[in-house]
Amino acid sequence: MGKYCRADFEPKKCLMESTMRVFCLQHVPFEGPGTIRDIFLEAGFEFNLCPLYQGQDLPHWRDVEFLVVMGGPMSVHDEHRYPWLKLEKRLIGDCLSQNIPVLGICLGAQLIADVCGAKVEAMGFREIGWYPVFPVEEDIQRHLNGEQLIPRKGLTTLHWHGEMFEIPDDGVRFACSECCPNQAFWLPSNAMGLQFHLEMRPEDVARILEGAGEELREAGPWIASVDSIRAGAERYLRQNTRIMRRLIRFMLKKSIFSQDSSSLV
User: Fold this and answer.
1) Rounded distance, CA 114 to CA 197, Å?
2) What DSSP state is assigned to residue 229?
3) Proportion of the chain in helix, strand, coil states, percent, rounded to 5
4) What is the CATH number of the domain that holds 116?
């Protein structure tokens, strides 16, 4: 890998001698990287988008220095409908085995869990809307040295899922919610899975409402209205972006610390 930012970098101020190659796997046109892409580009990283729904080939793991896996309406169990899922899981597994950072969002988090042998199954209802998640303080103190990835008072963010992952055997659960106990995990191989969507800008919310809005017609206690989902995009954007940047910084620090100190600038 090339030379990266200092461990205490700020993405907008980061200067690097060579760019880090980020690959982002996108499953459907209405669930893109949003602010994740913005954060990496602001930091000067090379950001490569792979729209799998267009037949884009997956990269080889040797070309990947940070992997982002986005969400989508399909299940991790739908390999018969989406043959590329099997190849995608293989790429995720290769990156995990090489300690290449992997960030999974919603379906992406479920794919990481599935690759690690954890169960992914239907919850019996959908969680769609802006709802709070809370830190799991005991696990954070025990396994993450008190690193506060989620604010102690909680964080309101966008949810859009009907399945849930179990935490992989060596994973650390660091976020939960009232209706879904497993909202986020981190793996020592430097992978992170988020069941929720911190990356959504107002235009991204508009796209997912257009692409998957029919799911809001279902009855359920955790299905919000179109108006409340649209309004939340502006209301929570700033805090969600700040936490997304914090999580990416955390993963990059872990990646940097695994390199020889001479690789830092």
Assistant:
1) 19
2) H
3) 35, 25, 40
4) 3.40.50.880
Q: How many domains does the chain have?
A: 1
The one-character DSSP state at 74 is S
DSSP assignment of 80-115: TT-THHHHHHHHHHHHHHTT--EEEETHHHHHHHHH
Backbone angles phi, psi at 147, to 5 degrees: -60, 120
Pick the closest to residue 65 from 41, 33, 101 (CA basis).
101
In which region does residue 197 sit, left (phi positive, over 0), alpha (psi from -120 to 50) or beta (all else)?
beta
Contact 4, 263 (CB under 8 A): yes
Confirm whether 176 is domain-assigned.
yes
Phi, psi of 182 (to 5 degrees): -110, 95
Give pLDDT tens digits for 239-261. 999 999 999 999 998 885 444 32
Q: Residue 174's closest CA among 66, 76, 250?
A: 250
Is residue 25 domain-resident? yes
Task: Say if 5 falls within a structural domain.
Answer: no
User: Global pTM?
Assistant: 0.89
Tell me if residue 241 falls in helix, strand or coil.
Answer: helix
The torsion region of residue 10 among left (phi > 0), alpha (psi -120 to 50) and beta comes to: beta
62-94 pLDDT, tens digit each: 999 999 999 999 999 999 999 999 999 999 999
Q: Alpha carbon of 230 to those of 128, 168, 179, 201, 235: distances in Å?
A: 12, 33, 22, 10, 9
Domain of residue 254 covers 11-263
3-state secondary structure of 168: coil
